[in-house]
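Handoff note, outgoing to incoming analyst
You'll be picking up this chain. Sequence as last confirmed:
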Amino acid sequence: MACATWLRSSSLSHALLPILCHRTSLSTTLRRFHRLSSTDRFVPYGNRFKNPLMAVHAQAKRGFSLKEDEVATPADLYFEAPLKIVEYPDPILRAKNKRIDTFDDNLKKLVDEMFDVMYKTDGIGLSAPQVGINVQLMVFNPVGERGEGEEIVLINPRVNKYSKKLVLFNEGCLSFPGIYADVERPESVKIDARDITGARFTVNLSDLPARVFQHEFDHLQGTLFFDRMTDEVLDSIRAELQALEKKYEDKTGFPSPERIKTRKLRKVAAGFGKS
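Most recent structure output, in case you need it:
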């Protein structure tokens, strides 16, 4: 079980420092990110970096309003270990994810288990629906190694602002094993969220951490990374997506809930979008 660090708002300015400061080189980190998942990874606990490569500012913020979503019940947060990665085209990945209002030991155990499966599957980030739990929760550690970097937990995140500058990057996703393709996203985002204790905070992210967050946030909106690809890029992985659809049908005995062959352009927020 991963030993997650339960971060308070006051520690986030350290928690979100780039993983690029540890012994792994930038190129190695980016290669690891490519073979991973959805922006499925992020930073080590216990270490505090000097001379950060990424400008990050975090501050406690009280009283900001969150869009009122349906609240998760104890049954919604029930899980059995070990968790398993949900693969496309399982409908769980498109289902609505509920807001978390209970910050208890069960939630901490769930976060521990999510970090555990993330590390075991070589990810740097993971969202709750990717392990079959439809709630607004994500974890990440850009270093992607247990005991290195810093483990970040974001609950009920919302996008406050995002940059106009867009960056193209080759992404992968744990729910799409072995599939990688270019996705364009804003270079930086400002987000509001809660930490594992329920405390609200605001943080600015840029570069790799911003991309990891955006990928995982998409999962919480039922958006998958191929929804943001151009038709040309999508064509390059179409056969691989169809193979996953057939795998789902062979495993479940049911027809695929969606088919990339007949896919129509899915409407998603331009660039990244607010929620």
